[in-house]
Design goal:
This protein has 2 domains: 144 residues, Rossmann fold (3-Layer(aba) Sandwich), CATH 3.40.50.720; 127 residues, UDP-galactose 4-epimerase, domain 1, CATH 3.90.25.10. It is globular, with a radius of gyration of 20 Å. β1, α1 and β2 form a beta-alpha-beta unit. It has a 7-stranded parallel beta sheet, with helices on both faces. A two-stranded parallel ribbon has the order 4-6. It has a two-stranded parallel ribbon with strand order 9-12. By secondary structure, it is an alpha/beta fold.
Length: 308
Amino acid sequence: MKILVTGGTVFASRFTAEYFAKEHEVYVLNRGTRPQPSGVTPIIADRHALGDILKKYAFDAVIDVTAYNEQDVRDLLNALGSFKNYVLVSSSAVYPETLPQPFCEDMQTGANSVWGDYGTNKIAAEKYLQEHVPNECANAYIIRPPYLYGKMNNLYREAFVFECAERDMPFYIPKNGEMPLQFFDIEDMCRFISILLEKQPERRVYNVGNPKTVTVREWVRLCYEVLGKAPESVCVSADIEQRGYFPFYDYEYKLDVTEMSALMPDVKPLSKGLAQSYEWFKENRGEVRRKNYFEFIADNFVGGKAFE
């Protein structure tokens, strides 16, 4: 297939481009400000000022990893020539936290107070795509992942825990450590997109993710075990802002991924995905966007003042 991937230079879009380039002819659309992925043909342009640069191409699939709002989708759609499939990587943030859980694809989307504009902008992007890609002309698919992780993850999530383990530090866990987290390995996301392109299912919107959630405590333990270590966990009281020392919001949610599992019943075990993430991280530490978690810990957790 001839595939266009938006972005292609950082984490999800870069992994997606290199994953599909192993078997297909892949083009990436970006502004050329970062190193390009391997095995692809770059199209250097701003997606909001494309002119006719894409009109000469006929793509079997457009995989839009970097659309965050309606304008992102609108400008790309208006600039494309012919295409057969459009896959939009959306987000679980489109579900209001007030809905019953687990969230299902057929539930009404709406504002989420935790995610704010990020969620409502994703909703607008989804709506524009659904209204402007008629089914008789092309397939428009939307996937809604929870927290993505895995190789090439430049976000300071599992990388932060790995560094705590490397330093033989205790890990500071929000409250009692029982908050559930749901993840999806980036390779599994690409495998599912490949299945959509191959099988062309009638359903157009899919929640995606590992069917099993893990608690914060379990996730930290799995990260430490990658390094052959066991964490000493220290519970931090709820009145300390957890985003100061921990990479996730104080927000519990779960996606129902039954429809995804019907097409792709097997997903990568979290332990294996974390091990692969660490192998990448060891060789690419400089690509991770660090936050000041260690500084916050040093400034606030001296003498056990913030501990329950």
